[in-house]
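agent> call fold_tool(seq_1)
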Amino acid sequence: MDCTATPTCRTDSRGTATTQCTASDVLRWAALPDLADAATDQIVFPMRRVASGRALIREGQPFERLHLVGSGSFKCIQTDAEGYEQGLAFAIHGDILGLDGLGQPQHTTGAVALEDSSVVALPFQQLRTLSRTVPALEALLHHAAGAEVLSRGDTHYLMSAPGSEVRVARFLLQLSRRQAALGYSDRRLRMRMTRRDIASYLGVAHETVSRALTALAQDGCIQLSQRDVDLVDLGALREVQRVTRGRPPQHRRSGTTGQASWSVPRTAQKAPRPTLQ
């Protein structure tokens, strides 16, 4: 997949320099490169930069546009009446933000930059009008809606895990797959979110996330390097994610082959059937 941005700088009638990209760029970044053509080359959308920690979308903000992530990353959040921030998702290059506003007068969730980022602004009414004559843009909307449904399915699968280590393992593997789809390493993860952000998303305390990461590192599944995580044993990590009851068994390495062996906890072993005397 071509992840290289090719924005251009243009000067408007007031002499202000603005960064823009074409609809063809948007299609390529959204993993739909085959739909780009001469028509989409002529359609231009504005881009904007979002500094780390700044809100791109605020809860209650009128729904006017979607945003495609050109670079950087975001956390999607929802705040309750007491001010608690619930993490809903993490968005990276190629993801579209703001879909919660479809069919609604305003956004019910927010999006905050986890690092210095850039987005393509897609005015929704303009997008709808163009999609009537440019089928590629209609396909883009369908693709974005489908990706949102798949993302929620991944979240439900993650949250169905009974233990924190399993949830963390599933979370790391999901990030690994997303990075691999962009052409990046599936073993070294760029963790731009904080432990507290991860904890909010997983529905656990941030101390629990730290303990789970430490346990996975001690078991030889991962290696921690400040805020980055190296997946040193993908096979072992996949074994952890498949655990559906209780705490995953301890991972023990045999020799120097790096292969994982998993022991069944004694409590889970079947007791011998008593015999009648």
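agent> call fold_tool(seq_2)
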Amino acid sequence: MYKGAEAEGLNQLLIQYSYLQVLDFLTTIAFLINGVREGNPLVRLALSYAPHPIGGLIAIKAAAVGLGLYCWWNGRQRLLGRINLLFAAVVAWNLAALIVATARLKPA
């Protein structure tokens, strides 16, 4: 396994990745509550085929956690860092879309 600074860097990336997955999960739940359509076709498919949309979302997030653990276990620091950047952008986009959707729901 990895030692020293490299291991610490990988551990921090995995913690960041996990945090971003939680934020993505929560913003997606907020989407569902506010009637915003999911943009990711894979997630949309899971939401439609699961007995309950939350179950489909949990299945997708479980797969995402598996991907993060795979990267961590195999020392794929650069890949995990890039995925973190992607999910940080996704969470920011989700929040912006949620703000716009909420503003549209409120009467002027």
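agent> summarizing second result for user.
The first helix runs from residue 4 to 34. Residues 4-105 form one domain.
agent> awaiting next instruction.
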